[in-house]
Design a protein that fits this description.
alpha/beta; five-stranded mixed beta sheet; 333 residues; 65% helix
Amino acid sequence: AFQKKARTAYFVYFLLVALAATMTRSAGICLFMAAAAHLLLNSRWRETAWTAGVLAFALGLQQFFFGTDAGYWREILSAPWAGMKQMFLQAPLVWGSLVWVLVPGQDIFSAGFNRAAQGLLHAGAWLLPLVIAGLLVRKALDKTISFAGIFFALYIALMHIWAFFPQPPSAFARFLLPIHVLGLFYLFHYGDALFSRLLRGKAGLSNILYAVLISLNCLNIFLIHDFNDDVLYRPANREMFSWVTENVPSDQVVMFTKPRALRLMTGRPATAYVTGVGQDPEERISRLGVRYIIAARAQLASDPFFTFIWTQPARFSEAWGNTEYVAFKVSGP
């Protein structure tokens, strides 16, 4: 009876944690889906139903309080075949970002390691998902599959969808943080098994790789010990955030290269410049109701995206600026 109560308590605790995770990141949805799949495979029907019900409640709660940004899915579903092609081409981004999480390419040595890894991943980026899918099916049939394994596979699949939006591995790496420990575990677990089989029982290569990863990260710390990429509080950025807070109404959309940071610091709804190759920026501005565009001065001079601003001064008028940023007010529909 005690074990049954303890199991129920842990299950309720898990549902509460997954509910909180769903409110903030899509990893929460993968937690629910992995739990439901694991329970279903073990014929625990009541817990499966509870998990599905709480997931539906979480999504409904999210929709009620926060709404959902349909922009991501609208971009993907507006051209499904082009979207699938883009995801296929961007597959190395997922695995390259996982490598970046394990060894950030911040100095000449770790950067060289990342370049070498990226080259290998470009050759076999779609082989890895097939291997994972094969392992998943085999373990499901053997009923030896773990919750962690299902979660890892589902999260990797989700990352292949988000890879639709091109980014460098250094920027995309933050999305891999929820599974980087699992990724490291599976890398050594299955890598060591593979090397042992290929080398007829001689293990130890995983230990060498482990030593290399630790050495590169220690070298990173030594060479860039004063590295600080938190630019939110730089004077120019603080001036820009203050201007937005004081001058932009709370219901008006701002277009900015880092929309989440702008939303976090000002509370104003924000969107990125473009999220698809060949997208018409003016169509996006009209569709999303953008009223302000903020750009870095360096971007204005080099990025062809901003050409349409300079050719229509009556529609895009300069409203504010400092040493690093310029804000344009959008007139008309």
